[in-house]
Fold this protein.
Amino acid sequence: MEKHIILLPGDGIGREIIDSAKQVLTAIASEYNHRFTFEEHAIGGNAIDDYNTPLPDKTVDACSKADAILMGAVGGPKWDANPSHLRPEKGLLGIRKQLELFANLRPVKTISSLLYASPLKEEIVNQADMLIIRELTGGIYFGTPSERTPNGVVDTLRYTREEIERIVERGFEAARIRRKHLTSVDKANVLESSKLWREIVEEKSKQYPDVSVTHLLVDAAAMKLVTQPSFFDVIVTENLFGDILSDEASVLTGSLGMLPSASLRSDGLGLYEPVHGSAPDIAGKGIANPLAMILSAALMLEHSFGLVDEAKEIERAVNDCLLQGFHTADIHIPGGVQVGTKQMTEAVLENVTTKSISDSICKSYV
Ligand code: NAD
Ligand code: IPM
Ligand code: MN
């Protein structure tokens, strides 16, 4: 198979970890006889420095012609005081919106060798395995007006019926091929948008009688994520709630540095990126955890290219590294070996080409 992949390293640790994913993809290509070509483009703070915009037109053009897009992360203190149109994050929001990547999948699964690393008790995180589906191109992130007024400030939360329907459908479809339990998270006791959201979930549920539905208010959902994470199968929620809940859920797996994501358009075009940010506090030190980025590449193989075996091979290699005790500084494995980004990547590469020791515990991420 031949595929053309756009790489958007971004800022901070983005550059360090995207190289890890590229190396792993290259190893997979040679093992399975595929040809992946890569083309790099600017986004975020580095694009502001070089082109005076966080999202140059040629980045958008290249991404719209690509087979898939892999992104590191954007942002950093250097640009924090910039006016809002010159913030690195505007580049990320812009590419999501312009490419209509409305469905953001954030799988969260505890890994047996990392149970100790979770801040929660082992008996609570054990068995947690959920898929957070976050609406990504609507809601308060994109509503207008969003501005300072003479006396204060205004942000606008706006959703069309169609925007809610298409993401809720994704939720039901995903639940149908998993454990058939959909939790819809809203704030229907306060927000009009959430009242419509809940109505649409109820309407759609008639088409999916095999899927059981729970409605949770977002505050209660935040609590349940840390008291009973195994309650959740698929969570579907709007943009801002999904942003917050997915960072909270990420630590179930031991570290934010472990969580991958896929942002999909209706025709399957996808942008794949870790859930974490550019981690300016550790950028340039060579200690970033590359696993969320590498697992994002696995999601790309599965969702955009249908290469399920190859995706599983990467997930297995990551699991094997952790079972062998390799970990970066953000994770503690008792008796393990702490390594940097490069060595962790080498450990994954080594495992990609050696025989499996954890096939039996490795399920697909989604
Ligand atoms: P962050 O996710 O960058 O970092 C939070 C904490 O997690 C930090 O202590 C960091 O060192 C640690 N961390 C994150 N990823 C790690 C990894 N792979 N390995 C080891 N440790 C890791 O969040 P933040 O500090 O709130 O934000 C920093 C910048 O990143 C901001 O400018 C923010 O807007 C941006 N951001 C970008 C994205 C993105 O590009 N998708 C996502 C979130 C935040
Ligand atoms: C994420 C990030 C982004 C978001 C920021 C950087 C705009 O936190 O991808 O989770 O809020 O969507
Ligand atoms: Mn976030």
Notes: The two ends are 22 Å apart (CA to CA). Residues 14-32 form the longest helix (19 residues). Residues 119-253 form a domain with the Isopropylmalate Dehydrogenase fold (CATH 3.40.718.10). Residues 359-366 have pLDDT under 50 and may be disordered.
